[in-house]
Amino acid sequence: MEQIRITFLGTSNAIPTKKRNHTSILLNYKNESILVDCGEGTQRQFKIAEISPSKLTRILITHWHGDHVLGLPGLFQTLAMSDYKKTLKIYGPKGTRKFIEILKNLINIKISLEINEIQTGILVDEREFSIQALPMTHDTPTLAYSFILKDKRRLNKEKIKKLKIPNSPLLSQLQQGKDITFNNKKISSKNVSYLEKGKKISFILDTSLNNSTIKLADKSDLLVCESSFSRKDEKQAGEYKHLTAEQAALIAKKAKVKSLILTHISQRYEHTPKIIEDEAKKIFKNVLIAKDFDVIKI
C-alpha cells in the first residue's frame, strides 16, 4: 500500500513562537496534496520544508479564525506567480464562500478556486479514498476531518502464477472481487486474493470536548488533535472552547485510535511541552507532541 505522508508545517495555537508557526498540516497521498488549515506564514514553511505548494489539490479549512487562515492570501498569490494551472478545491464550514469573496476584494486572486461549504458527512469520495467532516463545538462554525484510505483487494501473485492466469482483464475482474472461468475451471476471487485494510487519519483542531470528536476519530490509525491547555488551565480551556491534553487523550482512548499526535500548542508551554505530553500519556500511552516540520509516514 502506498504511504500517506503527514508534514506539520505549523503547530502553534493563536500566537506563534520562535519554534512554532501558525497551524497548517499537509497530507500527501499519491497525486493528492491536501492542506489542513493555512495559518500566517504557511507559504514560507513550504519553502523551508522544500515542498512545492504548486502540487496542492485541496485545502480543508477547520474554521475562519485568523491563526488558521491568514496564510491564504499569500498562498494564493504565490500559486498565481508559480503559474498554478489546476483548480484548487477548498472545503470549509458555513461562511467559507463569504470569506473567500472578502479575500477576492482585498487581493486579485488569479487562480481557479472551487469553493465547497460543508456541514457534515462525506465531502470527497474518490476511488481510493474519501474525506469525512463533522461539526465541532467552538465559538464559530468549525469542522474536523478524517482522510480515509479505502480497503483494497490485492491478488496473491504466487497463486495467480500457479494457475497460469495471464496478464489480462481476468486479473482486473478478480481484483474487483468477481469470480472468473479460466481453462474451463471456475476460480473464486476470494481464493486468489486478500483484502488490504485501509487507513484512517483524523484531524481535530479547535473545539471543546463533544461526542462528535469520538465519532469522527473512531478507530483512526492516527489522530492529530489540538492540545491547547494543560489540566491546571482546564477552566480557561472551557471558556475558550479548546481541549486540554487529558481531553485529547480521552478522545483517543474512547475512539480506540492507534496513535495520537498533539498539536496547536500554546506559547505558555513553549519551554515546558513535556507537561502536555505527560498529562496525555497518563490516559493514552502512544502519544507524541508535533513540532514544526515533523514528518509522519503511515
Short précis:
The chain is of the alpha/beta class and 298 residues long. The protein has helices at 42-48, 66-69, 72-81, 96-106, 157-163, 169-175, 189-192, 211-217, 234-240, 245-254, 274-281, and strands at residues 5-10, 24-29, 32-36, 58-60, 87-92, 112-117, 121-125, 129-135, 143-149, 152-155, 180-182, 185-187, 193-196, 199-204, 222-226, 260-263, 287-289, 295-297.
Describe the protein.
It is a single chain. The chain has 298 residues and is α/β, with parallel strands linked by helices. The protein has 2 domains: 5-151 and 197-297, Ribonuclease Z/Hydroxyacylglutathione hydrolase-like (Metallo-beta-lactamase, Chain A, 4-Layer Sandwich), CATH 3.60.15; 153-194, no CATH class. It is 28% helix and 29% strand. The protein has 11 helices and 18 strands. The chain has helices spanning 42-48, 66-69, 72-81, 96-106, 157-163, 169-175, 189-192, 211-217, 234-240, 245-254, 274-281; strands spanning 5-10, 24-29, 32-36, 58-60, 87-92, 112-117, 121-125, 129-135, 143-149, 152-155, 180-182, 185-187, 193-196, 199-204, 222-226, 260-263, 287-289, 295-297. The strands form 4 sheets. A 7-stranded mixed β-sheet has the order 6-5-4-3-2-1-18. Strands 7-8-9-14-15-16-17 form a 7-stranded mixed β-sheet. Helix 4 links the parallel strand 5 and strand 6. Helix 10 (245-254) runs parallel beside helix 11 (274-281). The mean pLDDT is 94.
